[in-house]
Known about the structure:
The chain has one helix and 50 strands. By secondary structure, it is an all-beta fold. Among the domains are: 2-146, Immunoglobulin-like; 540-583, no CATH class; 650-754. The strands form 18 sheets. Strands 1, 2, 3, 4, 5, 6, 7, 10 and 11 form a nine-stranded mixed β-sheet that branches. The longest helix has 8 residues, at 309-316. It is flat and about 180 Å long. The two termini are 18 Å apart. 11% of the residues are buried. Keywords: Signal. Residues 1-20 form the signal peptide. This is Cell wall surface anchor family protein.
Amino acid sequence: MDKFGTFVLGALLLSFSAYATPALLTYQGRIIKSDGSPLEYPSVSFIFQITDPSGACVVYQEQVDGYDMTHSKGIFDTAIGSGSRSFPATGVFTVLDSLRNGVSLSCQGGSTVTLPLHAGRLLRVSFWDGRGWRLISPDSEIRTVPYAGFSTGFTGLLSGDVSGPQTLTSVDKIKGVPVDLTGNSVGKVLSFDGSKFVPATLATGTTGTVTSVTGGTGLVGGTITTSGTLSVDVGTTTGKILQVATGNKLPIIDGSNLTNLDASHLTTGSLPSSSLPAFSGDVTSSAGSSILTLSTVPISKGGTGATSRANALNNLLPDQTGNSGLFLQTNGTDASWVATPNTGIASLTGDVTASGPGASTATIATDAVNSAKILDGTIGVVDLNFASTMTANSGVVVRNGTQFFNKTCSNNEILVWNTSNGWSCSALPSAGGSGTVTSVTAGTGLDGGSITTSGTISIAAGGVNTTEIANGAVTGAKLETVGGLTAGTYGSASAVPNITVDTKGRVTSISTQSINTLPTASTSSGKFLKSDGTNWSGADVRFSDIKNSMGASAFNIGVCNANQTVKWSALTDMFECQNIASLDAAAITTGTIAAGRLPASATLWQDGGSSRIYYSAGNVGIGTSTASTPLDVNGAAAVNSSFEGVSAYTNTGASYTIPDTSVNIRRLTLSSATSAIRLPAMTSPPGKMYSLTLFVKQDGTGNRALSILTASGDSVKWDSNVAPTIATASGSITILQFIKAADETVWYGSMVWKEN
Length: 756
């Protein structure tokens, strides 16, 4: 950075009184170039830095851009505090805050400083002359005048024209002239009596020069020459001014010429069709038309979402495709088609039975209909069948179409028909009598008939089957002993029964067959049963026990050597020894292979035979056994091509910390009015340097301010001790570079390129 000589006409002039709120410092001077001519560049930029007395701690920095020095003969006059502050990057902090003593101030770079009450400051000024940044040297010392900005913080006793503490200030003099308030009262003013200021009565005013007032446009009531009233000309006709009526509303007028009205405030009246907007959504219309079109009513608004019955069903019900004959069932939340409903009537049980789903035939169970289940009423004759025997405990009840026949007979009485009296009870004849049966015919299962006078009816052979035999009617006493069988128990631990049955499954004979018992188990586990031709015994399985198809031993191996294995020979139908000629490495899945068994190529360091060097853990050392980095080369290294690692662009926001030193190039987009970027911590490996290049890009808004911070204990030292000014245009890029040694605490920074 070049250095210019500067002729200062007046530096650091306060732009406020002692009682005003501190805001700005005025900095004036003249810039003369090295050839003796004044600087008259049309867009000069200034960087103002306020430091502690040593110049090492920058407590305030701002930049003023676009200062026009055309035809200025090198003279400038600018206000410190009016530019873009870049440090401190956040919070409320004015230029005068940097002049406070006895409080902790942050230094650019991360540290803090607390200066004694009477400490001064240095002002460091750099400017851009169109070709580069120039440093005004030496730094200017800030002395007493700017500190007047802190007069409001004074708490001591005052003297001179005023006296007393700050909170109870008394004005005793005005410009050295005493003030005597004796006789002061409301309405009086201070008046100079020749030696001091005293209370005095305000003199009566004299006649003015206004002789008449005429009402102009919008006013009525003039002309007034002495006294009168001017009023606003209100009304609803041409040229009148509208007056708000009762209810804070304007009177009714023709609003056809009104524009930019808010329709949300219209509460009554009708809009003409030509003023209607176009409607969209479920109901549509054209602009300026009152005709509305309803295409479909969506399901969410109570409709079907369709214009046809079939589509409406498909929209409201689950898809019907492939679900013919199924039931629609709901689980309380949704509906679906099912073959058998979880609820509803799937089957009937009890007196009436049926099974579903779908149409099915219901069946009344046998004996299910009794008198208790028959409703009182008439039963047709065709529904009465007396083919079976009728019994009753108390009497006989018969009904025809009009009346009941009800008779209760005594024991051993019978019903007798009389043509005059109908049915009546009558005792059995005491001597019996002959019947009038004329013929008896043998039915199913009987032989013998027909009998017209007398004869014999017998049970036919096979006439009694399981249908005629009631359950439980056949007892053991009714069964004859089956021939060839003897009662007893058949079968034992040493014999099994032989059972013979006929074609109808009846047992005709039983005998036993003796068997040999198993030998007692061996006391040793893992034994197998082995026969010696006569007996079984527990024995181990040997190769000699395994036979081939010819009955000989299946193993012809004798004693195999250490370098041999066993193979099967289809020719001899035996297992035989053979030398191990080769082994497929793919068959080896476990264990360790001795290094002597491996080829020289096996010791090459590569990734799956792809000739790519690869190591996934730890550090790799070449020429050193104590590698301190992922790749540590002790000696010369030849590189044919080199590429730096680079990160993608990252938005910084108000603050962003570079996470690590994994790459050397970082790309950042400034996305906040002030963006603070903190450099990473870098303390290892010892004896190594780390170079970091930052591509700093303005976002679409542009004019973002940048400050560089460091990890605790570190600091930044810029080229020429001045932080560079970055490009501010939207999308513009500035390239900054930083270098730091692992065993040092200083980042050395510089700007290597700036757009435009």
